[in-house]
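Ticket #4471: structure output looks truncated?

Reporter: J.K.
Steps to reproduce: submitted the chain below (461 residues) through the standard prediction queue, then opened the result file.
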Amino acid sequence: MLVRAGKRDVQEHFFVEPSTGRIYNIDGSPYLGIESIWNNKNYWGNMQEPKEGGMHVSFDLSNLDDWEYVFIEPTVATLEGGEEGMEGMEGMEGGFGDTTEVAGAADSAPETEEDNILDIPPSWVKKLIVDRETHARRYCNYGQQIVLYDKAKLERFAENSNEQGMVLRLTLFKDKARTIPREQREEFQNRRDKLFLRIRYPLEGKVKESFLPGAYLSLKDRVEWTGRRRELVFYTSARPDSLVRRVEEIGSKNMEYFEGRDDHLIYRSVSVTMDRNDGKTPYLLPVGQLGELVIHKMTEKFGRNDSVSADEDIRKRTYNVRENTIRVIYHYTKGKITSSSRVYYKQGPNGNQPPDIIEVDPNVPKPSEEKIEEEMHAVQLAEKACYTSVRHAELEKEELLKNRKREEQNIKIDPRSSRQRARMRRVTASMWRGRRRRWTQTYERSITSHRSCRTFKMSRQ
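Returned output as attached by the reporter:
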């Protein structure tokens, strides 16, 4: 296929080999010669003699010694310089260009010869019609295409043809025989659960799933190392608790990360164990198949609150359940390398032991007993609130995993294609823009009418 220069910023002619898609320059092409050139309007035969040592062909179609045309439209060529007769052939030197001489040849011919000019015959090929369903299948009759590469296998599926909503699956192998997969990427479309990407690492036991906005509990990504670690990432703006990420070291520790909260909480963690010691377990955490685990430590971290002084702004709270202590660390004061802290002792082996208080400034007076008692009561309430939040987060995680299991067992596909949904969104947006425009016009007319009426009353007075 020859692509001409002169339009669409094409600077020079070049060939495109249809069987491979490779592009060749005119001088560097593997072709020996050209017998003819045609487009949807005309046909030109090459009258130039072939030369050895490459392709030496002039593409000036207006030169009748080099190219012989077959079809012309004399009336159009005379009035418009051949633009309709050979549309797309004008405008460059040596290309499908100037047809002035062709038009001149038509002008010089007697009018009686116009009846003898050949006309383009109608095509004997039926009009090509591809219905939407066939076009949607894309790949043969089964809607699937498989391409094998070195240590890789690529599978493509037509939209909505796969029962899982899959449109692409790329498998990377460890060996050339393609028997040991090391990575598998799957892309999905039109799934009701909003899943659009899944990456598996079979040798590592790792699976990553990515979701579009609108998934259950605003889930964005789910990464799991089977039996070891689980990480959940959320769309923060869609969650009331501003949760960003949840990391679980299965059977040992859970961590949550937040941002943009009013209470400035940025981190919460809970450490668990299966050892119950003497059976006195004030805080238990239900963890799915592992049963109830014993909480031995909870931690909360807070960002800086500029409305409170650093000595009173809590940076970290650690609830040591086993030792019956609560440690509170405050933010650093400007210019200091240490921070204030307090350790509160709950009822237990230490009895009513007073808290350990560390102040950055030694001249600060010690708090009174009433204030210490108030602080003790506040941190105990904070500990119960932290336990409630941790337990709620664990139950929410279990419900999310159960819901994912149900969604995979009963996959639902939106029958509408992505193009149809995009069109519906455009129509809906256009409808709302029209309504907003009409409301604005009605409001402006009412304001104008009110002002006119008021002006008329004032003029009468």
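Triage note (M.O.): checked the attachment and the full token line is present. The helical segments are 74-80, 100-108, 132-137, 369-409, 418-460.
Status: closed, working as intended.
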